[in-house]
Structures are given as C-alpha cells and as structure tokens.
C-alpha cells in the first residue's frame, strides 16, 4: 500500500518507517522540520513537511498525492510528561490532529485509517487482576485531573471508528513504550533524575518499540475495520521493575527510591501512572486476528540486547 504516516519522525515512527518499507509499502512521512524530512528521504520514504494542526497547510501539502491508508502516530511527547499540562499538546493532536488527518485521508483517497491510542484509556486506577480485553469500558469520564487525557483518547477512537463510509477505521491501544529510548532513561538514571516509588505500586502494560511497529504493520494489512486492538506484551511490570532492569542492562546506578506521595507531588502526571495504575491487558485479539506475536514477550527479554536505537526521535509533529 501507499501509506501516509503522521508522526513519521517521532518515537514510534522511526521504527515504523523501516518496517513498513521492508514489508513492501510506500511511505509518505509527515513531519514539521526540514532536517527530519531529509532523514525520512534518506530512509526511503517520501517526506511531506506540514503541521497537522494547521488543516489548510496540511491539505495543501498533500494536494495531488494519493494514498491507500493513513496511520496516525502523532504525539508531542519528546520526554516523559511530568505534569498534566504536559499532555495538552498531545491531547490536541488526538482531537484536532485526528480530524485534520481524516480530512487529508479523504483528499488522498485513502480507504484505511489507523490511529494511536493507549492502554491508559482503561483508567488511571487499580483495574483488578483479570486481563482486560478490548470490550472493557474505555475512556470513562471520572472528573479527575486525568479527564482531558481520557477525553482525547476517546475522541481519536470515536472519530476513526465512526469515520465516513469508505474509510475503514482501526484503533491501536499500545502499552507503555520501552526499548527504543533506553539511552534516554539511562542518562536520567546516571543523573539520579528518574526516581521510583517505594513500597508496592501497580503494574503497567508494556510494549517494545519494535513490537509496537510490527503490530501496526500487521493491523494495516490484516486489521478488521471498526476494531480496537491491544498492542501489549505478555509481561506486565511495575515502573520500578522496568527502571531497575534498564539500570542493570545499561550499567547505570539503580534509580533513586522515593515515597509515592512525594513523586506525585513533584511530577503529578507521571507520578499517577507510576504509583496508581494497576492493570493487566490481554493481547489475544491481536494474536488471533492479526497473526501477530511480540518478539519480546517481556521487558527483561526486550532489554537484554542493550540500548535499542532507531535514530534520533523528534517531536512527533
């Protein structure tokens, strides 16, 4: 297929572009910067320079092009979001960016649209020990400070799954990415700037960047229209377990251990994720319908090869 990829130079895009090309697809990568566009061209993609939040500029940039599918992997996260306000640009991309990319899909004649969602849409709380399937309640309003994040996830999912006739919408609910940014975490650990909570904390759903990319290719090729797919590995882990393993494999000092309440005070958003989310997620639908299996079933295996690099990650827009 010919695929327009929003976020082509971002955290997941830098792993997705080579996998799409290796699978025989033509990639049109959307990015905001000329330097990122040059890297995309060298990687074998066609680069389109545009800000997805500027609808007019985006439609002008794709005018005259055609594509079979659009993949939305846009965020504005170049580092872990410490505060709730850090999520606002990404929330806009999930609301306005999705709307604009859908308009671009229509202009391109695309009939397939994939969008990035996240496991955190199931809730920022203890969700029990039973693995959640895609049929579990998602992005339920709670009135808490996480409400804008949940609303943005719901918006991108609803827009894509309810797209106009002729566009097959598919949602990918990724786990917490790891593996491709190990060098970043290792640098923070060396500076003692990446604490972990003391005492018991909840488990998170994880996915290696390369496995997230392979699942995306599988969904592009074999995903069922209107479906959501959990893209997670087989081994949920606490934030502390993940950081301890990154420290061990990168030979950096173990992370600083602080009380959970102090972490939430200093970094409210990521502190909430670290200390209060407790969830297990089933990947059975992706295995069955997409024929996909994570190459790295757990974070220890995924980190065993050391730092995985896919080139420099830019802001996804």
Main features:
317 residues, single chain, two-stranded parallel ribbon, 16% strand, globular, 7-stranded parallel sheet, 40% helix, alpha/beta
Describe the structure.
The protein is of the alpha/beta class and 317 residues long. The protein is built from 12 helices and 13 strands. The protein has helices spanning 13-22, 34-42, 55-62, 88-108, 147-161, 182-190, 209-222, 239-250, 260-266, 268-276, 284-290, 299-303; strands at residues 2-6, 26-31, 46-49, 69-72, 112-118, 168-174, 176-178, 196-197, 203-204, 206-208, 228-231, 237-238, 257-258. The strands form 4 sheets. A 7-stranded parallel sheet has the order 3-2-1-4-5-6-11, with helices on both faces. Helix 2 (34-42) links the parallel strand 2 and strand 3 (46-49). Helix 1 (13-22) packs across helix 7, helix 6 crosses helix 8 and helix 9 runs antiparallel to helix 10. The longest helix is centred in the N-terminal third of the chain and has 21 residues, at 88-108.
Please give the alpha-carbon distance between the first and last residues.
23 Å
Instruction: Give the tally of β-strands.
Output: 13
Strands across the major sheet, in which order? 3-2-1-4-5-6-11
- Give the rounded overall mean pLDDT: 94
How large a portion of the residues is in β-strands, by DSSP E? Answer: 15-25%
Please tell me how large the radius of gyration is: 19 Å
Shape: globular
Structural class: alpha/beta
**Helix coverage percent of residues?**
25-40%
